[in-house]
Amino acid sequence: MSDWSKVTRPIPVPNQWTQPFWDAARRSVLELQRCQSCGHFQHPPYATCVQCVSTDLKFEPVGGKGTIYAYTIMYHTGDKRFAPAVPYASIIVELDDAPGALLAGNLLGSPYTDAKVGRRVEVIFEKLNDDITLPQFRLAR
Fold first, then answer.
1. How far apart, in whole angstroms, are the C-alpha atoms of residue 120 and residue 104?
2. What is the C-alpha separation between 112 and 54, in angstroms, rounded?
3. How many domains, in total, are found in the chain?
4. For residue 37, what pLDDT is reported?
5. Domain extent for 50
6. Three-class SS state of 6
7. Is residue 8 included in any domain, yes or no?
8. Which residue from 47, 70, 75, 118 has the highest number of Cβ atoms inside 10 Å of its Cβ?
């Protein structure tokens, strides 16, 4: 398995659109932006709905279970901070409660070879510092 204990992750910088996502993650809750006009979930957050262009958007809690939509195995890294974890699986997850919204993360707690399209995963939260907690994924139990 990949050794993430020696990786110094870059820290995301929240902005006015992403701050509610990071605030929820710090509480170990997954919240995604949802259009109040058409019901579409979207991630990453935007100023308008990507489906109907409404500006009536709110963050709503969603369950953290879903399926691997796509993945790539990282054998090399452009950022040397990730070198201790190579090889690792970087995955895109479609959440059960938010069809169409795709969330990127890493597959933790399993060999990278376990990443397969359609595999069931669940969110886990990795605290990076007092302000940022990163949603990641593991194979569903």
1. 14
2. 39
3. 1
4. 98
5. 15-139
6. helix
7. no
8. 70
